[in-house]
Design brief:
- Chain B: This is Putative small integral membrane protein.
- Chain B: Pfam families: DUF2160.
- The complex is a heterodimer of chains A (289) and B (93).
- Chain A is mostly helical and 289 residues long.
- Helix content of chain A is 73%, strand content 2%.
- Chain A has one domain: Orthogonal Bundle (MetI-like fold).
- Chain A contains twelve helices and two strands, in the order H-E-E-H-H-H-H-H-H-H-H-H-H-H.
- Chain A has a two-stranded antiparallel sheet.
- In chain A, strand 1 and strand 2 form a beta hairpin.
- In chain B, helix 2 packs antiparallel against helix 3.
- Chain B has one domain.
- The radius of gyration of chain B is 16 Å and the shape is flat.
- Classes of the chains: A mainly alpha (289), B mainly alpha (93).
- At the A-B interface, helix 1, helix 2 and helix 12 of A face helix 1 and helix 2 of B.
């Protein structure tokens, strides 16, 4: 069927454009306006120019939080993506096991973020938590409220528990869409298990993996609720990620100007990294075709 | 309807008007020369005019941030550098 070009069709995107304008563009514009001013409330503002940006960009507190966030996102991507692929490869493709596995995989995704934080906050406690009590009875002096390494391990394991399912479900969707003819051809050629994965399954999963990596990166880079509930950003500032620092600044200290400047820098970093991820992965996909 | 809660200032209004004017100009360009002008430049992948504007704006934002962090509060040189950068992007990317 021949495509019909009609520029009036652009009016069809008007509703979503209005929705995005009210939910994203107008708030973003307001944040930009706040970032160059100072306020003490009562709708009174004082011009500050670029002072807040200079303050944020020269503050070790911001750079420390940014590094923590980048390391966190790198670690969870390095764990969740291979683990998600591994689980998806081993899930049943036929029979009663399929719905059972799918429901089990979907369960962590259905739990609200603050509830996940509370579960792990209690689970890891030394006095009443199963994990904390068990590790200490093994002779490991685990205490996520006092030891930064333990706090990091708890937050990472919690995120892996919560979000690996998303990668699994996306990879599984990619895997079940591969026609049997591919596997039959591989069997005839005597392909090894690794070759089947490398040349059939991985290329077919590439698109869903792109979505998984992008979603997990953006989500982990913006993580707030779970680490805030479990560690509150501590011990010290060891698990204070950018979003936690931002909320402390904006709501705890009511420094709306610096917080707005930090929000814009934060937003630009996410935009840049997401664009790089998206471009690299879509280009490698296009080169393969 | 009052927009005082948005805390508008003249410089930020000029900033947003410029961005919207650039997007509108891109729309007009597209109307007279449809197709987005795709080409493969120095990044070795296909970009359209919209991609090039996005790369220009994002790059300019980081040029300004780098200037603020390393140079100082005056942004005129950062602006000049961004214009040169945007011309480079539209010419070579």
């Amino acid at each position: 069927m021949e495509k019909t070009w009609n520029n009036k069709a652009w009016f069809l995107v008007l509703p979503v454009l209005l929705l995005v304008a009210f939910s994203a563009v107008i708030p973003l514009m307001t944040v930009v306006n706040y970032s160059v001013q100072d306020t003490f409330g009562n709708n009174q503002f004082f011009w500050a120019g670029t002072d807040w940006f200079v303050e944020i960009l020269t503050s070790p507190r911001f750079w420390d939080a940014l590094w923590r966030n980048l390391i966190f996102s790198g670690v969870i991507l390095a764990i969740e993506v291979p683990l998600g692929i591994l689980i998806a490869l081993n899930m049943p493709k036929h029979g009663i096991g399929v719905p059972v596995c799918l429901v089990l995989m979907a369960l962590p995704l259905l739990i609200p973020w603050n509830v996940v934080g509370t579960i792990w906050q209690v689970f890891g406690r030394v006095d009443i938590g199963l994990l904390g009590y068990f590790l200490n009875s093994l002779g490991i002096s685990y205490n996520y409220t006092q030891n930064p390494a333990h706090a990091w391990a708890t937050v990472i394991v919690m995120d892996v528990w919560h979000w690996t399912s998303l990668v699994v479900l996306l990879c599984y969707a990619g895997l079940v869409s591969i026609p049997d003819a591919y596997y039959q051809a591989a069997r005839i050629d005597g392909a090894s298990r690794w070759s089947v994965f490398r040349y059939i399954q991985l290329p077919k999963m590439k698109r869903v993996l792109l979505i998984a990596v992008l979603l997990r990166f953006m989500d982990s880079f913006m993580i707030y609720t779970e680490p805030f509930v479990v560690t509150g950003g501590g011990p010290g500032n060891s698990t204070t990620f950018l979003s936690i620092d931002l909320v402390k600044m904006a709501i705890g200290q009511f420094d709306l100007g610096p917080a707005a400047a930090m929000s814009i820098i934060y937003f630009l970093i996410i935009l840049l990294l997401s664009w790089v991820f998206y471009t690299v992965m879509t280009q490698s996909d296009a080169e393969q075709k | 309807m009052s927009f005082s809660w948005m805390a508008w200032t003249l410089p930020t209004a000029i900033f947003f008007i410029t961005i919207f004017a650039l997007i509108a100009a891109l729309g007009v360009w597209e109307y007279f020369s449809p197709g987005g002008g795709p080409r493969v430049g120095i990044l070795r992948f296909e970009t359209t005019r919209g991609d090039r504007l996005f790369v220009s704006l994002l790059g300019s934002a980081f040029i300004h941030l780098a200037w603020l962090g390393l140079g100082g509060p005056s942004l005129w040189w950062a602006l000049a550098l961004s214009v040169v950068y945007a011309i480079g992007v539209f010419r070579f990317v």
